[in-house]
Amino acid sequence: MLGPVESQSVSPVFVGRAAELETLHDAFARAAGGDPQALVIGGEAGVGKTRLVEEFAGAAAREGAVVVFGGCVEIGADGLPFAPFSTALRALRRELPEELAAAAAGQEEELARLLPELGETAAARRADRSDEEGMARLFELTARLLERVAADRTVVVALEDLHWADASTRHLLAYLFRTLRTGRLVVLATYRSDDIHRRHPLRPLLAELDRLRTVRRLELGRFNRAEVGRQIAGILACEPDPAQVDAIFERSDGNAFFVEELAVAAHEGSCTGLTDSLRDLLLVRVEGLPESAQRVARIVAEGGSTVEYRLLAAVARLAEDDLIEALRSAVNANILIAAPGGDGYRFRHSLVREAVGDDLLPGERSRLNRRYAEALEADPTLVPADVHVTRLASYWYHAHDPAKALPAVLDASVTARRRHAHSEQLRLLERAMELWDSAPEDVRATLRPVDYTEVYPPCGCDPATKPLRYLDLMAEAAVAGRLCGERERALKITKRALHILEEDGDPLRAAWFWVQRSRLVQAQARGDGWKELATAQQLVRGLPPSEVHAEVLAAAANWSMLRDPGPDAMSAAERAVEYARMVGAEDIELNARLTLGGLMVDAGQIEAGLAQMNEVREEALARGLTAVIGRSHVNLPSVLEGVGRSEEAVGLLREGLRLTQKTGLRDTEAWIWANLAESLISLGRWDEAVEAAVNAQRTGRPAKPHGGGSNSLAHLALSRGEVAAAAGHLASARATYGTHDAVPQSNLPMACLTIGIAAAEGRLLDARAEGDRALSTGFPPGTQRYAWPLLLAAALAESEARAHALPAAQEGRAAYLERLFEAVRKLTTGAPLWLAYDKWTRAELDRAESRATVDTWSDVVTAFEALERPYDLAQVRHRLAEALLEIGGEDERARATELLRLNRATATHLGARPLADATAHLAQRARLSLTAAPPPADPADSLGLTTRERDVLRLVSAGRTNRQIAEELFISPKTASVHVSNILGKLGVSGRGEAAAMAHRMGLFSAETVTSGTRS
Question: Where are the alpha helices (DSSP H) in 584-605?
Answer without folding.
Answer: 586-602
